[in-house]
Design a protein that fits this description.
Blueprint: E1 2-6, H1 10-19, E2 24-28, H2 32-41, E3 43-47, E4 50-54, E5 57-59, E6 68-71, H3 78-85, E7 92-96, E8 113-119, E9 122-127, E10 130-135, E11 139-143, H4 150-158, E12 165-167, H5 171-192, H6 198-201, H7 203-219, H8 225-238, H9 245-251, H10 258-269, H11 275-292
Parallel strand pairs: 1-2, 1-6, 2-5, 3-10, 6-7, 7-8, 11-12
Antiparallel strand pairs: 3-4, 8-11, 9-10
């Protein structure tokens, strides 16, 4: 299968490395310099004490010629890509984003076969051509509005054993399950600059963690809140030594995905009071502006 991967951050490098095992992959980068490095040196994957390298084609040209495209950029970088996708002939497009803010773009792409996905892998971009696989996970994918399934089935059949894809029947439930984790763990750890586990071990942070969960779960109309809370806590405990992606973005002075996570929640509230969500949204946005002014 010919696959184009749009976005050459940690996830783009990770998926290019693994999917190139059974497919012809082209990685679309933002910079010509990065594309040149990858074409010259390949992509190196670091996991534990081992390193592996694979040759992958890369380009900074935005021709997006492949019949299957996987979008790995963050939410705030989507708009110009969506504008290009609207002009392309029909093909299969797989979105791998945090939050649910990208759903508003899908009405402009109705001529394409759309698949929504979430990645549960941990990845860290070390350099333009080196990525560290910091945590093994799975990729969940789900057809959007009963789109054609052949490509999805082929991806699931051809995946690597160490890089599995699984199909989910309900895309909305799948995205909500990921959103509730991102909306509770990420903003708190980013604001307090703590690892995930401190939301469990610090009693004051834990109280805020639960109160925020209650607010998020109410807005998302989660039916079994007790089970959902247990799942969120388990993820937090299993990643106790990790720094959330939003924490790392704040630390490195980068823009966060707060708009597509808590911003989406505020839009969903329709004016309903959600004080913790509103406070955290304003706090993270304020930190972003502060970083820009440094």
């Amino acid at each position: 299968m010919e696959i184009g991967i749009i976005g050459s951050g940690s996830l783009g490098l990770l998926y290019s490395f693994y999917l190139s095992e059974n497919n012809k992959v082209t990685l679309y980068t933002r910079r010509e310099e990065q594309a040149s490095k990858i074409n010259k040196h390949g992509i190196t994957l670091v996991q534990g004490n081992s390193e592996m390298k694979k040759n992958v084609e890369a380009t900074f040209e935005k021709n997006y010629k492949e019949p299957v495209l996987i979008i790995t950029v963050k939410q705030y970088s989507l708009k110009p890509i969506i504008d290009t996708l609207t002009r392309l002939s029909p093909r299969t497009i797989i979105f791998l984003q945090n939050g649910m803010g990208h759903l508003r773009f899908l009405k402009h792409l109705s001529h394409h076969n759309l698949i929504l996905g979430i990645s549960e892998h941990g990845a860290l971009k070390v350099s333009d051509s080196v990525v560290q696989h910091t945590g093994n996970g799975i990729t969940k994918i789900s057809s959007y509005k009963d789109c054609e399934m052949d490509v999805m089935n082929q991806i699931i059949r051809n995946h690597s054993e160490v890089f599995p894809f699984i199909r989910k029947s309900d895309w909305e439930r799948m995205l909500k399950e990921k959103l509730i984790v991102n909306a509770t763990i990420n903003p708190l750890t980013a604001l307090f600059r703590v690892k995930n586990g401190e939301l469990i071990t610090n009693p004051y942070f834990h109280k805020l963690f639960y109160e925020l969960f209650e607010e998020v779960a109410d807005l998302l109309k989660i039916e079994n809140k007790e089970l959902s809370w247990k799942q969120v806590k388990t993820i937090c405990e299993n990643t106790s030594e990790n720094k959330s992606s939003m924490y790392k973005d704040i630390y490195n002075g980068r823009q966060t995905e707060i708009d597509s996570i808590l911003g989406y929640m505020i839009d969903l509230s329709n004016g309903k009071s959600c004080p913790r969500i509103s406070f955290l949204y304003q706090a993270i946005k304020g930190i972003e502006i502060g970083k820009e002014g440094v």
